[in-house]
Design a protein that fits this description.
The chain is built from seven helices and two strands, in the order ααααββααα. By secondary structure, the protein is mainly alpha-helical.
Length: about 170
């Protein structure tokens, strides 16, 4: 039994090293043009780190094509399917139409958003970074609805947790 666990630990350490190498290779792209300004703005939202912001920025590219949160959520596939017949309307599972990376990044951001933020030196640096990014690039109006997406997604799961349901089964 110990030998099997030893093999699993070695395999896990190898995978963690691979992931660290991939993340180290991708992180410089978060600060370069053309995605650097968008990544800086997205990291201002709680639950979105640099790699998540890089995923969203590279998959979505032009945020101006979405006039509101509803159209963005339709793009990501995070809207329910609808079965309609006459007066009866039934909603089912999410459509999953759109990029899987964006869906995954938004769901993970919503899960992280549920927790109370910790206050420290990092938020001060984050605010300075976002202010610098906003002063250099266009106004942040194209991201004005982004926070409501994460709040809405985390709020629905937060309510399930508040009803004392097992959160792992809520989604």
């Amino acid at each position: 039994m110990q030998a099997a666990f030893g093999h699993y630990r070695v395999a896990l350490a190898a995978r963690e090293a691979e992931m660290a190498a991939i993340e180290a290779e991708l992180l410089p792209w978060a600060h370069r043009d053309p995605l650097g300004d968008t990544v800086a703005k997205l990291t201002a939202y709680r639950g979105i780190g640099e790699l998540t912001a890089l995923t969203l920025a590279s998959e979505v590219v032009d945020w101006r094509r979405f006039p509101n949160a509803r159209s963005f959520m339709c793009f990501t596939g995070l809207v329910p399917t609808e079965y309609s017949s006459g007066q009866i309307t039934r909603r089912g599972h999410i459509t999953k139409a759109g990029p899987q990376g964006v869906r995954t990044a938004l769901v993970e951001a919503a899960w992280h958003y549920r927790h109370t933020p910790k206050v420290g030196a990092e938020p001060v640096n984050l605010i300075e970074t976002v202010q610098a990014a906003c002063s250099v690039s266009c106004s942040a109006s194209s991201f004005s609805w982004g926070g409501s997406l994460i709040q809405a997604a985390s709020g629905s799961w937060g309510g399930v947790g508040a009803r004392r349901k097992r959160v792992g089964l809520a989604a």
